Amino acid sequence: MTEKEVKLIVGALLHDLGKVIHRTGVNINHSESGYQYLKEELGWTDKEVLESVRYHHKGNLKNAKLEEDSFAYITYIADNIASAADRRETTEKEDKGFEKTFPLQPVFNILNQKDGERKETYYEPKMLDQTINYPQAEKKQFSDSFYKEVLDRIKDCLRGLEWKDPRYINSLLSVLGATLFYVPSSTNKGELGDVSLYDHVKITAAVSSCLYQYLEEKGEKNYKKCLLEEETAFWEEKAFLFYSMDISGIQNFIYTIHSKDALKQLRARSFYLQIMMEHMVDTLLERLSLSRANLIYSGGGHCYILMPNTQAVKKKLEEYEKDMNEWFLNQFDISLYVASGYTEVTANTLRKDADQLYTQMFRNVSNKISDKKLHRYSAEDIRKLNEFSKAVSQQECRICKRLTEKIHEEGDGYVCPTCYELKRLAEYIMNDKMCFFGVFQEGDKGVPLPGNMVLVAMDKEEITKYIKEEKICRVYAKNGFYTGQNVETTIYVGDYMAKDYSTFEDYAKAGVEKGHIERLGVLRADVDNLGQAFVAGFAKEYRTLSRTATLSRHLALFFQYYIRQIFAEKQRKVAIVYSGGDDVFLVGEWNEVIEASMDLQEALHKYTNASLTISAGIGIYQPAYPISRMALEVGELEDASKNYSGKNAVTLFSTRDEYTLEDGTQMDTGTYSWKELKEEVIGNGANVGKLSSLKQFFDENQERGMSMMYHMLELLRQKMDQKVDKLNIARLIYMLARLEPVKKGDSKEEEEEYKRSKEAYRSFEENIYEWCTGNASKEDIRQLITAMNWYSYLIRNRSTKSNKKEKEKER
Ligand SMILES: [Zn+2]
User: Fold this and answer.
1) Ligand 1 midpoint to CA 178 (Å)
2) List of residues 6+ apart from 24 with CB closer than 8 A
3) Which of 214, 297, 454, 460 has its CA 20 to 30 A from that of 603?
4) Ligand 1 centroid vs 454 CA: distance in angstroms?
5) Sheet (strand 574-580) strand order
6) Res 444: pLDDT
7) Is the distance from CB of 502 to CB of 78 less than 8 angstroms?
């Protein structure tokens, strides 16, 4: 990237800096105040930047005496392309005026809403920090002093800026992201106000870079003519490529391991893939002379990038895909594969969807990627693969089971170089201080990355040293730590892990003291219909690139950052193995995993204003059960939830038993909507749930009760399995009667206790009758079976505990 291009991008990123200044209480128009600030406060003299800021509106631009290749023309039209849809609204309607203290509205207000409906909620004015900013009904206003603080933070970053190093753009983007994410781009009362100022300036910068390269390749230097005077025609030119890349095989790559310290290994592999994806995106952007402003979305092995439509870019894309796949083939055989695709689009496509163009753009790239996946390897690739597998003197890696020649011998077998390095990385990422990750030209240590690079974890001191010595290609800072060197890219990693629990065994044992069965809980979940939400979740008139970018970033932030807070708040005894895109893989103490799943569902519900739902599967296992099997089986549980009508469901424990419901549908035993789980299976508030009823009764009557509960469970199962036509009511009555309390004596206390337990028995008996007899539905019985299973897991170790106490007493 040339110095000129860096200036173009910085100019575009700062073109609306005046809005921040204006909102601190300075009453001059934002183009002028931004310009004056950069010139006087910061002493900048670069006309490329200054002109872009001062003349990005048509009125000023027309009258300004600028050279015909001033970047102001690019910034002007890029600003329009980024925000056109919103601006159009104001020209059509009466001007309702501006209100500079206006808070940002969530894009979720208009996501997946029925025609014309929209919710009225707002974000609390704040900068990005650890706490989740949930949409709220209250409309809190911004203050002058908030904007002053924002301005100070941006100023600090701008002071260190160096035009020669494109990496500074990433750090500027990080700062703008942290400060302007909850700041509205527009405070015009006639507009929606749901696109953040950050997303607006970012898209403006992305479009600017594209236009510059596009016009360069055409040899067009007269920006004034083609972007201002003949603007309308330019909107119809296919100046952009909308590009998407997808890595397949991620899930299998992470979970197909055999290792004693599986949890550490899984977390290291999952982190490795996330950072590899970032590195691949950065490598591509670097080859194309673009910045991360052009990255519209990245997560879960998938990304969208806006690019210029030039021959040079197309050629580089082809090379890039080839390079990446060659590297993957060498490094991991066929387990990981990159597929990409692009489609040529006009500026008009990016701002309106009257002819379904925007929707079509997403469909086009996704079709191209699907095609590629069908024709993965060329004849040449296959020949290479065969050669590779014929090679002699290979040994099997004990962790990933791949055959390799280079091998590390360890006490209990051989480990391939990648697994060897990943083992070291696993140790580092457990250490909070090692939050910097440097990418180097290949050396003798470090985890391999595409492009013959390696990744090394470091602490602040080390990384600072390497940056000074200029020995480092790229720096990633995990979860918002800054070196102060202004070259790092902040990445968010949802890597929550309960304190003092670091192995599957630790987690399995975590509930034993409470009486729980010693088991590991495993959860897999993902958002329902997310692809659809991206492509068509907004009404036509709202489908713009800025809005898509805002939606993407909110979701990425939720799954890669806020998710840590959700579990930390309640100190859940769980560990996140993987959380990216909209996918979550969680392990933990089994009952805590169920609780955590509800935390997650409720948080997402609040966070997205009920516009998105999530489905999950939860299995429970012996900690020594192979992780790849767990992943597979829990994946099936998740599928069962996805097949539930309306999704938005969770499947507990097992899909092994299938039952036919009254209306003939096949139902997995443990699949419930979240609402049903909370209200009917567990019980909350006014809803008498099955689990809470069992707890209430049996917690007091365990000695005699438990064997009876197992008998009842057996009876209910027979009915559900349709081995018997009718539930054996007589038998049920008999069993219940055996639970009836008997009076122990005539003292006042004994009398009281009898009365209490009699009452408890009556209400329990009533509930069971209601659920199992008369007009009882199969749903009630199904829920009761789940609750009984659940309860039996909760108390499995309870008797041993009382035994222990007895023994202690004896001593
Ligand atoms: Zn290996």
Assistant:
1) 38
2) 144, 147, 148, 151
3) 297
4) 17
5) 574-580, 583-589, 520-527, 614-621, 649-652, 671-673
6) 66
7) no
**7 Cα–ligand 1 center, Å:** 45
Tens digit of pLDDT for each residue in 617-670? 999 999 988 888 899 989 999 999 999 889 999 999 764 444 444 444 444 568
- Expressed in angstroms and rounded, the spacing between residue 420 Cα and the centre of ligand 1 is 7
What the block records as the tokens of 795 is 């108390």
Q: How far does residue 584's CA lie from ligand 1's centre (Å)?
A: 24
Dist. CA 401 → ligand 1 center (Å): 6
**For residue range 13-61, what is the model confidence (pLDDT) as tens digits?**
999 998 999 888 888 888 888 899 889 988 888 888 899 989 888 888 8
pLDDT digits (tens, 9 = 90+) for 378-400: 777 777 766 666 555 677 888 88
Using the CB atoms, write b or e for 175-214: b if 16+ within 10 Å: bbbbbbbbbbbbbbebbbbbbbbbbbbbbbbbbbbbbbbb
Has residue 803 got a pLDDT over 60? no
Distance from C-alpha of 520 to C-alpha of 366, rounded to nearest angstrom? 37
CA of 770 to the centre of ligand 1 (A): 56
Query: Rounded to the nearest whole angstrom, what is the distance from the C-alpha of residue 541 to the centroid of ligand 1?
Result: 50
Cα–Cα distance between 18 and 29 in angstroms, integer? Answer: 7
Alpha helices (H) along 498-589: 504-509, 530-536, 545-557, 563-569
What does R_g of the chain's alpha carbons equal in angstroms?
30
- For residue 277, the CA-to-ligand 1 centroid distance in Å is 20
Query: Ligand 1 centroid to 378 CA: how many Å?
Result: 26
Nearest CA among 146, 141, 108, 103 for reference residue 122: 103
3-class secondary-structure state, position 122: strand
Q: In terms of DSSP H, where are the helices of 654-797? A: 674-676, 690-698, 702-720, 729-738, 748-772, 778-794
Give residue 258 CA to ligand 1 midpoint distance, Å. 9
What is the predicted pLDDT for the residue at 64? 84
Kindly state the tokens that stand for 304.
Answer: 């969208």
Compute the residue count for the chain.
811
Which residue in 120, 92, 116 sits closest to 193, CA to CA? 120
Q: For position 720, what pLDDT does the model report?
A: 72
Ligand 1 centre distance from Cα of residue 268 (Å): 13
Structure tokens at 232: 């309308």
Q: pLDDT digit string (tens) for 87-103? A: 444 444 445 567 778 89
pTM: 0.90
Q: How far is the CA of 416 from the centre of ligand 1 (A)?
A: 4
CB 251 within 8 Å of CB 341: no
| Cα 414 to averaged position of ligand 1 atoms, centre (Å) | 8
Q: How far is CA 689 from CA 269, 708, 764, in A?
A: 40, 20, 11
